[in-house]
Amino acid sequence: MATGVAAWLPFARAAAIGWMPVANCPMPIAPRDNSKKQDELIILNVSGRRFQTWRTTLDRYPDTLLGSSEKDFFYNEETKEYFFDRDPDAFRSILNFYRTGKLHYPRHECISAYDEELTFFGIIPEIIGDCCYEEYKDRKRENLERLQDDQEENKDLKQSNLNFRETMWRAFENPHTSTLALVFYYVTGFFIAVSVITNVVETVPCGSNSNQKDMPCGERYTVAFFCIDTACVMIFTVEYLMRLFAAPSRYRFMRSVMSIIDVVAILPYYIGLVMTNNEDVSGAFVTLRVFRVFRIFKFSRHSQGLRILGYTLKSCASELGFLLFSLTMAIIIFATVMFYAEKGSSSSKFTSIPASFWYTIVTMTTLGYGDMVPKTIAGKIFGSICSLSGVLVIALPVPVIVSNFSRIYHQNQRADKRRAQKKARLTRIRIAKSGSANAFLHSKRNGLLNELLELTGTEEDEQKLMKSTSLLESQHHHLLHCLEKTTAHEFVDEQMYEQNSLETALQAYPSHSPSIACHSSPAVTCCGRSGKRNSPLPNASPSPANPIPAHQSQLQELSALHIQRGNPLTHTSRIPRLRPPLQQPGQHIQA
Amino acid sequence: MSTMNLEGLEMIAVLVVVVVFVKVLEQFGLLEAGYDDSVEDELELSAVRHRPEGLEQLEAQTRFSRKELQILYRGFKNECPSGVVNEETFKDIYAQFFPQGDASTYAHFLFNAFDNDHNGSVSFEDFVMGLSILLRGTVQEKLIWAFNLYDINKDGYITKEEMLDIMKAIYDMMGKCTYPVLKEETPRQHVEVFFQKMDKNKDGVVTIDEFIDCCQNDENIMRSMHLFENVL
């Protein structure tokens, strides 16, 4: 029972009195409504905008947030209202759902924002009313496609280690991945063009030098054309075999349309090679040469527009089928009428109904060759009706096809634009991320320098370094710091990381430079502070058994940070500088 | 033969031309098409709106309190924003309470019982008057209301055919999936039982006095009349 009509339940129960005189058995006892609570108004405060409704309105849907006791979590005792920190505009449609029982989707709302609101309030989107459901589904599909496109591009960017076969396949599918692929792409394109042009030029009659008649160029320069053809077919064969080798699923590749086109394009040549100049089969051989024209379809790999056209035609198959069917019907009708109308006139070209088909087709598509013309008056009247209706029948399905094409084309444009904007977007994201990481490192440095200055420096230096950070930032930094301590590793910026990795590579060689040892010291000092001792300190003379004074380790850490921040060249010189002060005032700093 | 074909086709062609010509003239408004209903159609759409009488009047006419009338009106107007219920909406609403069977026939009879002035729509006054009788009326009034429901043509007599219609409508609401399985003659048998009980003078019809008499003597019926008193 729909809760929208819950208000009519009393009426239905009252009307049941109409059954009473007819009934033979006693009726069951009615349930008693013990909660004689008065209906009260509830105030819902959504980001400052107050909505009020009856409690029973909300109770209609007990499995949503507002209808269940979940809303008690949002109850504000002082103001005696329920406060939600959400979008008040979207909340309107949600509250209307309780009131009317129908959920509507406002068109100006962003689909993902609306979905989030629905999820928050525990309402499933499937109950959106019929009036708005189509729009909702369309927008949702668009959004999903957009997200999918993004995901696919992310996948492309993954530079995981692919083996040779996979790299080759990727190079074939996406020529922009490497220069070699691009070269290959252009070379094949060039050869396709050459092959198509040769096929065309072959049939042009070349000027004959005092021969009996004009021969087509193909027969005059047989050798040259044969060479070009061979070269092209070689390239195509090699390309096909390489694609076959690289394809992840060979069976699926062989079944795909493009590979069939490839095969059909190069097969005539091989068949021609195999067959001798046999008279019987030369007719069939000529037919096979027609298939060479399919090479032009290989261009669809190179042209996005062609692919879109093909995809559009495929998706408009039903409209095209309808067009064909209605045209056929009209052709048959009009051909019959024209035939009988023109039957009487002498020397009429309309010798049979199939013969009239030609006239009808030519007229309906508004070609009007004029080789068949009606001569009687009736024939002329029906002929004009035929041409008028032809225009109409053809004009009807065409806009559907056009709009489909436009939609797919624009989708593609959007994808291209997004790819172009993606680079800018990624740069922005990277800058933002590195900004926050730098902020953390900076504040850490400042924090330690502050501590150092507290020990040794003057007041002014302290003021200089005191950088005001907001509470949020400092809490965030504290969190990152805790993470560092937990893992006994530290955050570094990119330069230092690359340098470190370089250095660890050099560590394989037995050049025992103190720099490396010092690099490992940050970890040691961290652990040192927490009490763990993995490796002995390279420079400190006290044995590992001695507890490292806190300040000393602090200074060491600071030195490590200095190293990290400063230029890589001077770090070797800095260490000796810092070392002596460590060893000397080791005692009096401890105080 | 060929000339006959020609003439026949020529005639058809001429007819076609004439028809097209007339249509073109109509388009240009030079020929009156004779369709005057279009204006009326537009007016009809805006006339369906109804506002009930004031709260005090309704309070006086019915036995509901102010608060109860408020609650009733809110529910009524929520489902029918235009203020009146037409039969289609009525059937829809009633059908939602009985999802298993077909409640449309019974809803039709119910609609007629509520529609006192027989204008094809139930306004809030009709609605609330009917409810007042059903929920707050005396047993006598309730029985009279039930009699009105059964008497489809409102001639003061319940015939067997009328009763059969009502019975079939009630059984239709049960739907197919019942236990024990509903048989074709069950409504008819039920009608026989009813007439045996009610029709005292065996003249094939039940008058209102017979009906009220008989019901007042039946304990079950009397008890069930009080069943829905505290619905609101």
From TrEMBL, chain A:
<dbReference type="InterPro" id="IPR004056">
    <property type="entry name" value="K_chnl_volt-dep_Kv4.3"/>
</dbReference>
<feature type="coiled-coil region">
    <location>
        <begin position="133"/>
        <end position="167"/>
    </location>
</feature>
<dbReference type="GO" id="GO:0043197">
    <property type="term" value="C:dendritic spine"/>
</dbReference>
<keyword id="KW-0175">Coiled coil</keyword>
<feature type="transmembrane region" description="Helical">
    <location>
        <begin position="320"/>
        <end position="341"/>
    </location>
</feature>
<protein>
    <submittedName>
        <fullName>Potassium voltage-gated channel subfamily D member 3</fullName>
    </submittedName>
</protein>
<keyword id="KW-0851">Voltage-gated channel</keyword>
<keyword id="KW-0633">Potassium transport</keyword>
<dbReference type="GO" id="GO:0008076">
    <property type="term" value="C:voltage-gated potassium channel complex"/>
</dbReference>
<dbReference type="Pfam" id="PF02214">
    <property type="entry name" value="BTB_2"/>
</dbReference>
<dbReference type="GO" id="GO:0046872">
    <property type="term" value="F:metal ion binding"/>
</dbReference>
<dbReference type="InterPro" id="IPR003131">
    <property type="entry name" value="T1-type_BTB"/>
</dbReference>
<keyword id="KW-0862">Zinc</keyword>
<keyword id="KW-0479">Metal-binding</keyword>
<dbReference type="InterPro" id="IPR011333">
    <property type="entry name" value="SKP1/BTB/POZ_sf"/>
</dbReference>
<dbReference type="Pfam" id="PF11601">
    <property type="entry name" value="Shal-type"/>
</dbReference>
<dbReference type="Pfam" id="PF11879">
    <property type="entry name" value="DUF3399"/>
</dbReference>
<dbReference type="InterPro" id="IPR003975">
    <property type="entry name" value="K_chnl_volt-dep_Kv4"/>
</dbReference>
<dbReference type="GO" id="GO:0005250">
    <property type="term" value="F:A-type (transient outward) potassium channel activity"/>
</dbReference>
<dbReference type="GO" id="GO:0097623">
    <property type="term" value="P:potassium ion export across plasma membrane"/>
</dbReference>
<feature type="region of interest" description="Disordered">
    <location>
        <begin position="570"/>
        <end position="591"/>
    </location>
</feature>
<keyword id="KW-0597">Phosphoprotein</keyword>
UniProtKB/TrEMBL annotation, chain B:
<dbReference type="Pfam" id="PF13499">
    <property type="entry name" value="EF-hand_7"/>
</dbReference>
<dbReference type="InterPro" id="IPR011992">
    <property type="entry name" value="EF-hand-dom_pair"/>
</dbReference>
<keyword id="KW-0106">Calcium</keyword>
<keyword id="KW-0576">Peroxisome</keyword>
<keyword id="KW-0963">Cytoplasm</keyword>
<dbReference type="GO" id="GO:1901379">
    <property type="term" value="P:regulation of potassium ion transmembrane transport"/>
</dbReference>
<keyword id="KW-0472">Membrane</keyword>
<dbReference type="GO" id="GO:0005509">
    <property type="term" value="F:calcium ion binding"/>
</dbReference>
<keyword id="KW-0851">Voltage-gated channel</keyword>
<dbReference type="InterPro" id="IPR002048">
    <property type="entry name" value="EF_hand_dom"/>
</dbReference>
<keyword id="KW-0630">Potassium</keyword>
<keyword id="KW-0407">Ion channel</keyword>
<keyword id="KW-0597">Phosphoprotein</keyword>
<dbReference type="InterPro" id="IPR028846">
    <property type="entry name" value="Recoverin"/>
</dbReference>
<keyword id="KW-0631">Potassium channel</keyword>
<feature type="domain" description="EF-hand">
    <location>
        <begin position="138"/>
        <end position="173"/>
    </location>
</feature>
<dbReference type="Pfam" id="PF13833">
    <property type="entry name" value="EF-hand_8"/>
</dbReference>
<keyword id="KW-1003">Cell membrane</keyword>
<dbReference type="GO" id="GO:0005777">
    <property type="term" value="C:peroxisome"/>
</dbReference>
<keyword id="KW-0677">Repeat</keyword>
<dbReference type="InterPro" id="IPR018247">
    <property type="entry name" value="EF_Hand_1_Ca_BS"/>
</dbReference>
<dbReference type="GO" id="GO:0008076">
    <property type="term" value="C:voltage-gated potassium channel complex"/>
</dbReference>
